[in-house]
Amino acid sequence: MTIAPVLSAADSKQRIADTTHELLVEADGVPDPRHQELLDEVVILNAPVARSIASRYRSKGVDPDDLEQVAYLGLVKAANGYRLDAATAFLSYAVPTIRGELKRYFRDCAWTVRPPRRVQEMQGSIAAAEPELIQRLGHVPTDEETAAALGTDAEEVAEATSIRGCFTTLSLDAPGSVDGGTNLLDTVADSEDGYDLVENVHTLTPAVATLGDRDKRILELRFRNGLTQEEIGHELGVSQMQVSRLLRNILEKLRSSLASTH
């Protein structure tokens, strides 16, 4: 029986790096579809790296699956954009590409309320640096400690950390009070048609007051009593055609009167 040797983490990474390079070399010399098949193998082989980078951006209000998809997109871009004549290894090119894709996603797609781009970019830098600082310091870094690590001012860090809630919105089903007896939806004011009615009446009253008695009577029969034009004609002793013309003239007068007051 042959026992396969157990590879160390370093050996495993080196083997992945060597295989990746071999795939990229082969892909460089063949056309599609084989070219793309080889690049797909590169992506699959290095997918754990993309997942690892995406995991560092969790707990920021974005679904983990979305983060992984964005990281995979960055890996795909890296596989397609890497040049064999570059002096750097593939992962040295891929890791910044994946991080850049994640930062762009947070900057452009993940904000509920959109702060200035300067603040968004600072938020991304803080999110990337914070895990290392926590591990090194043994506690959540202060604004001053984070600013020192990033080479910026504590005021900028404080401004960026204050908008972390912009990544998420509260569900309307979330508790609206401490006792949990209501949810946020219960505290949201409902639209009230009565307000619109009051405003419309207040606006129309001066215009209607300028109309003659017959015009007011026609408006009352049509819009208050709900009569048809034919029924109004019977009521006034005129034809339906005349009622239609009268209504059109009345409404035109009202529109003109309202337009002149605005």
TrEMBL record:
* Keyword check for Ion transport: no
| Pfam families according to UniProt | Sigma70_r2, Sigma70_r3, Sigma70_r4
Among the GO biological process terms of this entry, one is: DNA-templated transcription initiation
Q: Which GO terms describe its molecular function?
A: DNA binding; sigma factor activity
**Keywords from the UniProt entry:** DNA-binding, Sigma factor, Sporulation, Transcription, Transcription regulation
Task: Tell me which InterPro entries the record gives.
Answer: Cro/C1-type_HTH, RNA_pol_sigma-70_dom, RNA_pol_sigma70, RNA_pol_sigma70_r2, RNA_pol_sigma70_r3, RNA_pol_sigma70_r4, RNA_pol_sigma_r2, RNA_pol_sigma_r3/r4-like
Q: Which residues form the HTH cro/C1-type domain?
A: 218-249
Q: Which SUPFAM superfamilies match?
A: Sigma2 domain of RNA polymerase sigma factors, Sigma3 and sigma4 domains of RNA polymerase sigma factors
Stated family: Belongs to the sigma-70 factor family.
Identify the PANTHER family for this entry: RNA POLYMERASE SIGMA-E FACTOR, SIGMA FACTOR F FLAGELLAR
Q: What is this protein called?
A: RNA polymerase sigma-B factor
What is the organism of origin for this protein?
A: Kribbella antiqua
